[in-house]
């Protein structure tokens, strides 16, 4: 590994939680994000506080089950190994719909452009978004564009919303996690976060690390086609696997037990995390999914995942247990256990 580190402008990964102003940790997908939503946004929106919160919502409309999702993307740099802001935004919303078991159909996209941004950069991002939508089999049908003064933004920000259909009989959500469920993951951890960081910090590794950004709706369709009673699907983006598993455990009131030796952490990710003191379980992913399925269904779901290009590295990493409800623990290679906490703030700001 080579390359100098520039620590100028880095943000503390655990900012103070008692603060009168917005800090970077509020956008990290961890405990601070949850507190912001719970104590500020939900009270402001009244009845929204009575809904089950997730990356997408499923509602009944005229006899059809509609999944709806919206998300904002603020990646820095906008272009990184394996992708860019445009395909990341489309894939992210496609994946949020797919995690509800929906077939994504339509997308809306809004661009906020900073004055002075080269049109070549904007064109590259827009072209990548269009290509990603075609690859995922969804249509971009509406959108918006705004421009802010030079210095009021940072290049390009993108917001996407998506709509999909959920088939009859499909019921997927964090509340369905059940003791005895096998916990599966579709492939290597942390590669998106490290790919972005490698450009931002000028890091080089013995093996190249590229983002895993990809649409997961095809992989989800392969899983559902097995006929397995899939309880939970989640793409572990901000906050990584640690945040996703803690959210699921708390929502369902169950425990999760992981086997560290089973976690697929590639060499470049392990090197970066060792150098910077990061936990691979907390690093963002953009093309991986977690699945909770009954133990008896685990082998056929794994086979279906491995039969799809985006699930070739799928493996079983743990089990859902009745003990320590609301907590995630990991058994170490030495036979001990450690608590895998919900991340508080943001390890890597502006990552997705």
Automatic annotation (TrEMBL):
GO biological process: protein maturation
Protein family (similarity comment): Belongs to the HypE family.
Pfam entry (one): AIRS_C
Cross-referenced Gene3D superfamilies: PurM-like C-terminal domain, PurM-like, N-terminal domain
Domain called PurM-like N-terminal: residue spans: 55-166
InterPro entries the UniProt entry points to: HypE, PurM-like_C_dom, PurM-like_C_sf, PurM-like_N, PurM-like_N_sf
Family matches, as SUPFAM superfamilies: PurM C-terminal domain-like, PurM N-terminal domain-like
Domain PurM-like C-terminal: 179-324
Protein name per its UniProtKB record: Hydrogenase expression/formation protein HypE
């Amino acid at each position: 590994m080579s390359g100098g580190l520039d620590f100028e402008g880095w943000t503390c990964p655990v900012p103070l939680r008692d603060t009168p102003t917005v800090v970077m940790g509020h956008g990290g997908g961890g405990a601070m994000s949850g507190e912001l939503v719970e104590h500020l946004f939900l009270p402001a929106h009244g009845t929204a506080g009575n809904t089950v919160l997730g990356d997408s919502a499923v509602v009944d409309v005229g006899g059809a089950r509609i999944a709806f999702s919206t998300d904002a993307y603020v990646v820095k740099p906008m272009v990184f190994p394996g992708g860019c802001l445009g395909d990341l935004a489309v894939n992210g919303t496609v994946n949020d719909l797919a995690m509800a078991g929906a077939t994504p159909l339509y997308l809306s996209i809004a661009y906020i452009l900073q004055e002075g941004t080269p049109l070549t950069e904007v064109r590259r991002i827009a072209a990548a978004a269009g290509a990603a939508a075609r690859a995922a089999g969804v249509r971009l049908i509406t959108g918006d564009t705004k421009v802010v003064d030079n210095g009021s933004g940072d290049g390009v920000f993108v917001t996407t919303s998506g709509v999909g259909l959920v088939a009859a009989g499909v019921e997927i959500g964090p509340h369905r996690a059940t003791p005895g469920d096998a916990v599966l993951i579709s492939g290597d951890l942390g590669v998106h976060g490290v790919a972005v960081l490698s450009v931002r910090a000028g890091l080089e590794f013995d093996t190249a690390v590229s983002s895993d950004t990809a649409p997961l709706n095809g992989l989800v369709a392969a899983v559902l086609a097995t006929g397995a009673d899939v309880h939970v699907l989640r793409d572990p983006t901000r906050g990584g696997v640690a945040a996703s598993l803690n959210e699921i455990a708390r929502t369902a009131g169950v425990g999760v037990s992981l086997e560290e030796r089973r976690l697929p952490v590639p060499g470049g990710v392990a090197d970066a995390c060792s150098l910077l003191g990061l936990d691979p379980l907390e690093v963002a992913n953009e093309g991986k999914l977690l699945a909770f399925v009954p133990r008896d269904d685990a082998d056929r779901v794994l086979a279906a995942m491995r039969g799809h290009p985006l699930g070739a590295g799928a493996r079983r990493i743990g089990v859902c247990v009745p003990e320590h409800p609301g907590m995630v623990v990991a058994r170490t290679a030495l036979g001990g256990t450690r608590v895998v906490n919900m991340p508080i703030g943001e390890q890597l700001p502006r990552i997705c």
